[in-house]
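User: I'm designing a mutation panel for Arginine N-methyltransferase 2 and want to avoid disrupting the core. Could you give me a predicted structure to guide residue selection? Please restate the sequence first so the numbering is unambiguous.

Assistant: Good idea. Sequence first, for numbering, then the predicted structure tokens:
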Amino acid sequence: MSDLHELCYFKTRPITKEEYLVPLKAYLKAGIPATYTTEEAHNYEHGIEEEPESNTTPMHLICENVPGDADEEEENVVLEMMEQLWLNGAGWCLLNNKNETPGCVLLRRGFHGTKYWESCVDSGVRAEVLLRKLNDPNVEFLDDPLSEDASDEEDVPELVEENASESVQDMYNGPAGATDTYLNTKLEYKDDALVTKEGADGVMMQWEDELMKAGSESLFKHIEDPNDVNILNIGFGMGIIDTMIQAKNPTRHYISEAHPDVLKKMKEDGWYDKPGVVILEGKWQDTLPDLLTKGVFFDGIYYDTFSEHYEDMVNDLFDVVVGLLKPTGTFSFFNGLGADRLVCYEVYKKVVDLDLSNYGLSVEFQTMKAPVTTLKENDDSEDSVWKDIKRAYWRCPLYYHPEARFM
Ligand SMILES: C[S@@+](CC[C@H](N)C(=O)[O-])C[C@H]1O[C@@H](n2cnc3c(N)ncnc32)[C@H](O)[C@@H]1O
């Protein structure tokens, strides 16, 4: 084990600047990378040339060993050590041999919500915002003459690392990952789920009832004129939220839906004939811009689609939402962004907040207990809602229900 790693075990107390921060800075200054892993150190010591499969970094070790009884002074030293490591390129979402990010290690140890946890989340937000800037074709970067590959994407930590989670990659490769592939995939309504016929991706599941209830309530929270209540729901799925919206008798209830099998089911179930219901057939990207020119405004807009990414929201949806929302209106959405891991989930929570504020919207999150969670990759136990579903898409203990309104 290297001296840098040794330092992160906090074998002697108290944790002081002299004993810990000063040598940490010296190692980093001497050129030891902040991402130097114990696996690399082991291979180096034993003359093994293969690339290690996991990455237990100094940040993982700090998160694993920071004592729970540290006083404020010690805590501040640890936080400064973390800051130094972040500044020197430590990866907030690199995975150790237990498939954990540093944040996941803290969570397992019961350190959720501590300053150490916030440090991991903030580092993720910074990395995500930086990555977005680097990928923005409108932003030009000056080449650093000292570094040939200054703009090399590989050097930039990603929100979800390539090897962060196999299932995230699967998601991008299957129907859940590409809208057009999804729209050409046959769907099947089961008792308590809407799934893709081949591959059994869960499109919508009954366990989300509680979350839809919170969503439908948000949409009716700030009604401008009780005689002219206009609601828009994007993504019909099993019609759970639309049924809840109908029960509140809005004046007009717009539903945007793109999948032919879902539209067929909506016809069979009489949604086209319900008073005040307007079905917008096709992708929201194609149908909603039209409403902007027609002077239609909404008290509430809910968004919950499938196979789309955060880029779809930030690049296109938010533009449309601010154009269609009444000044008093509420925008809410199914918040599954980064829900594979709590630390990613909280990074996205902050990123969404930042992005919506650029549109003059402020978002509040109501913390709910997630109705189902699984820590297993494939939970096939008889009583699991994930039985026969390829990928458990929810693994967080909490759900952050968003409600956005103009500031
Ligand atoms: C998760 S389900 C919605 C579930 C719904 N909130 C409920 O309560 O049952 C997602 C729905 O969005 C639809 N969808 C996916 N992409 C779409 C798009 N670009 N435009 C409109 N609908 C889309 C899917 O076909 C699917 O019916």
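For picking mutation sites, this is relevant: Residues 179, 203-204, 212, 234-241, 256-259, 262, 283-285, 304-306, 308 surround S-adenosylmethionine (CB under 6 Å). Confidence is low (pLDDT under 50) at residues 145-174.
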